[in-house]
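Risk register update: the risk of archive-format incompatibility is retired. Evidence:
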Amino acid sequence: MKQFNLSSKSRPIPTWTKFAAAGLLAAALAGCGGSDGAAGPVGATGATGATGATGATGANAVPTLNVSTLSSAQWGALSLQGSVTQVTINSPPVVQFKITDASGTPVTGLAQKDASGAYPNFGFAIAKLIPANATTKAPSRWVSYMVVTTPAAGATAVPAFPETEKDGTLVDNGGGSYTYTFALDITKVKGYVDAVVDDATHKKADLDDLTYDPTLPLG
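Archived output:
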């Protein structure tokens, strides 16, 4: 199972984890008979090579690689690269990003959920960077917004340790472009946590300042 997060230099959202995998190699050996002898036996069939990128259908079409066509071995050896192209936060964050293979071919077919309704190959998270405070001498620090799941209607949220999210909505736009809409509205996280009563093992203060601040860098 491949999993990765997202990152962006301008507005760093979670970091893409590079996939370390060897490239596929197919080789076939052919026997060779002597110049005046009988032909040798037919050699064994070589290993199946990687599925090639889908061919272009128009003059300006770009070839793509659809992962649904790969075998388990090909999927395991696949190396992926990605980049965030846009982040919008008006309520639940919306992240647009692109995925290619090691050769730069756009990759499609990754927006598939598993039986639990989650995306097994992705993990999304957002944190804010609170700057150092010269007065209190407090150093800069990252504070994750991903400390609670979106509560069901009428239910109280349950705070937890920072995690990644996999149950939002992921759309495959084609051409290696994807859009992920978070299930959690990070602008409401502080309210969710404020409504919780501390117990012996859960302290709201441990989650730090969860106030949504659009002026702070994201990571």
